[in-house]
Structures are given as structure tokens and as C-alpha cells.
Design brief:
Keywords: Membrane, Transmembrane, Transmembrane helix. By secondary structure, the protein is mainly α. The protein contains one helix and no strands. It is rod-shaped.
Length: about 55
């Protein structure tokens, strides 16, 4: 218990989950960034190779 008489486990119920949530969001953002960059690189390579040309 802390000095207010509240057990420490119940002091902030969302505090323990706040850290892993930010880690998961950062991983999702990094994965989206990698996917978007690889798609853009693929489009540029295809365009330069003439695969996206109209004729």
C-alpha cells in the first residue's frame, strides 16, 4: 500500500499497459512505413523498366 492507503496495484490501472501499447503502435507504424516504401520502390523500378508504359 502507498501512503494514501490505496494498494499500489490499483493506483493506476492503465499504467502497466500503457508501455506495451506504444511499442505495438510503433511497430505497426514501422511496418506500414516499410510496406509503403517498398511499394514505392517497386513502382519506380517497374516504371523505369517500361512495365508501366502505355505502349
Amino acid at each position: 500500500m502507498d501512503e494514501d492507503g490505496v494498494p499500489e496495484a490499483e493506483a493506476e490501472p492503465g499504467a502497466a499497459r500503457r508501455g506495451p501499447t506504444w511499442v505495438i503502435l510503433a511497430l505497426v507504424a514501422a511496418a506500414l512505413l516499410v510496406c509503403c516504401c517498398s511499394a514505392a520502390i517497386g513502382l519506380v523500378v517497374s516504371w523505369r523498366a517500361g512495365l508501366l508504359g502505355a505502349g
